[in-house]
Amino acid sequence: MESKYIIIGVIGLVVLFVFFYIKETINEKKGKDSEEKQKIKNIIAKITNDSSYQSIYATWEDFSIGGGGRRVTTTTVYKYYAVGFKKGLLYVVPLSFDGGDISYGEAMKFDKENVGMVNAKEGKNWIEIYDLDKNLLVNLMVGLSETKQDKYHPVNIQQKEEYQAFCTFISDFMKEVNDYHKVEVTGKIGKPIK
User: Fold this and answer.
1) Beta-carbon neighbour count of residue 148 at 10 Å?
2) Residue 123 — very low, low, confident or very high, per pLDDT cuts 50/70/90?
3) CB neighbours (10 Å) of residue 154?
4) Which of 31, 49, 56, 122 is the most exposed place for a label (fewest CB within 10 A)?
5) What mean pLDDT do residues 49-74 have?
């Protein structure tokens, strides 16, 4: 009797694994030339008015713990961005998803003149940008694969080539900005200065 329940449990797990694997594979195929990926490209092209910019989708999750006494609360804030980049220049455009439509806010343009410091780690996929007074302006992270999972992960975008180009850009941009302002960074998220 006991072995019967074990077999049913194993079969259930296999079925769930196959279901999620198929779902993820379908989302990845949809993301290669998805409508969302094209919208990101269009937003960057419209804002920069320059076809030499590469575009990429980026996100950031701010996680905080609060509360008092016996009650602990956690809060996660999800941020989404369209990013345009080329040597020495970076555009970051906040995105929102209302009813499935992608809307965008005011673009932020960054270069060595208006950025005081860039914190990142060589070869990694995240970047923190600080103003001339060393106040955080924006932080973002890019992924190879973004698939629709829930309301917090609203797009299907595959961006392997863009990912590799952006990781290289991060290292170059960090060096350019930090050398210009003679700043050393730690390469640790949220702790840029030693």
Assistant:
1) 17
2) confident
3) 17
4) 49
5) 87
Q: Where does 33-107 show beta strands of DSSP type E?
A: 54-68, 71-86, 89-98, 101-104
Q: Are 178 and 184 in contact (CB under 8 A)?
A: yes
- Give the 3-state secondary structure of residue 100: coil
Residue 77, beta-bridge partner list: 62
Query: Residue 117 burial by CB count (10 A; 0-12/13-18/19+): exposed, middle or buried?
Result: buried
Mean pLDDT, residues 158-183 taken together: 95
Q: What is the pLDDT of residue 70?
A: 79
Contact (Cβ atoms closer than 8 angstroms) between residue 142 and residue 163? yes
140 to 1, 18, 22, 57: CA distances (angstroms): 53, 32, 29, 10
User: What stretches of 32-96 show up as alpha helix (H) in DSSP?
Assistant: 35-48
Say which residues have a Cβ less than 8 Å from residue 55's Cβ, sequence separation at least 6.
Answer: 40, 41, 43, 44, 45, 82, 83, 84, 85, 162
Q: What is the DSSP letter of 192?
A: -
Phi, psi of 8 (to 5 degrees): -60, -40
